[in-house]
Amino acid sequence: MVFEKIIKSCRFLDPFQSYAPVEKTSEVRVDPLTGSTSRILDFPVKQLEKQDFGPIAEGTRQYCPFCPSMVEQITPKFDPSLVPEERYKQGEAICFPNAFPYDENGAVTVMSREHYIPIDGFSIHLIRDALECSARYLADLLPAQPEVVYQSINWNFLPLAGSSLVHPHLQVMSSSTATNYYATISRALKNYVSVHDGEFWTDLISEEEKIGERFIGNTDSVSWLTAFAPMGAFDVLGVLPRISAPAEIIGASAEEIAGALVEILRFMGSLNITSFNMAFYFKAGVGSFTPHIRLCPRIALPPLGTSEINYMKMLHGEPLTTMKPEDICLAIRDAWRP
User: Fold this and answer.
1) Cis peptide before 246, with omega less than 30 degrees from 0?
2) Distance from C-alpha of 88 to C-alpha of 78, rounded to nearest angstrom
3) How far apart are CA 17 and CA 19, in angstroms?
């Protein structure tokens, strides 16, 4: 397996050094599966400013549709011809149809009775119950709709990450149509098998554990690492090589995943990161597709609150970051207590 870096060098006359010639370098990193590229920049970034969402949360609490006084009065119920439950419930979690779905099957899983939880305030049981509640819904869909194999559990946390509501919730999808990510990964996995006569995710875990630069650690069901070519400011990857379907995470695996996610969210909170996107990908009935998790922070860069997404990612499809995956791995590993 090749972890390719292309070092770019740029020379110019620096006004801050009396116009002496200077050289700046950056890296283009090639994803070992897909061949897509990411850029690691040498760019000074000030410490992130801690954002306080308390006032926003208070201002939205009275009309929040996901709070306990409203959630069962104004949210939809599932069609009984598709799944056996009107709404799925577990602990504080409740899963119901998305009133504004992205696909033929879309659901929302409200994670907590609390209207607002900061990034470092989630407990293991809240995340576990929300994952299991979502997984039960996804598992029940397949008998009625065996074609909806592209199943995912997604999390936009707070407005910077694209959430329209402060109240913590997951977005659950089950589709017969692949997203661009699924299509790209599926093609690349098929190509990897034909070229290398091996299973990519198993090879990746083995190679990253051997190298040690981006390997965070193993739990019983999941191997955690930082992605070599990140899709965001950094990109935490969890690979589940012994899992094949959503129903299989119910129980010990969900507890274990939740414990690791709590540690990652606490780490992000220590950096004053307040928002993130997460996706948990499944492809039902396809043994060559290993379920995996990707979690990327969303950052507002000081002093203007600038988005980390600019023309490079939006229009060229190429993520930029100033955070080396190896540095992030070391920092997470130092705080790792799942």
Assistant:
1) no
2) 9
3) 5
Query: 243 — phi, psi (to 5°)?
Result: -115, 145
What percent of the chain is helix, strand and coil (3-state, nearest 5)?
30, 25, 40
Whether pLDDT at 45 is above 70? no
Mean pLDDT over 36-50 rounds to 85
pLDDT at 286 over 80: no
Going by C-alpha positions, the residue among 95, 276, 81, 86 that lies closest to residue 173 is 95
Give CA separation, 135 vs 28, 109, 132, in Å: 37, 10, 5
- The strand pair at 37-40 and 320-321 is best described as parallel
The encoded tokens of residue 114 equal 């609390």
Return all residues near 316 (Cβ < 8 A) that are at least 6 apart: none
**pLDDT at residue 338 in the model:** 64
Q: Percent of the chain at pLDDT above 70?
A: 99
pLDDT at 335: 86
Report the first-to-last Cα separation within the chain, whole angstroms. 29
* Rounded Cα gap, residues 141 and 4, in angstroms: 41
| 3-state DSSP assignment of residue 296 | strand
Rounded Cα distance between 193 and 155, Å, is 31
The CA distance from 169 to 114, in Å, is 11
The structure tokens listed for 21 are 């010639």
Mean pLDDT of 227-239: 97
The CATH homologous superfamily for domain 60-307+323-334 is: HIT-like (3.30.428.10)
pLDDT recorded at residue 121: 96
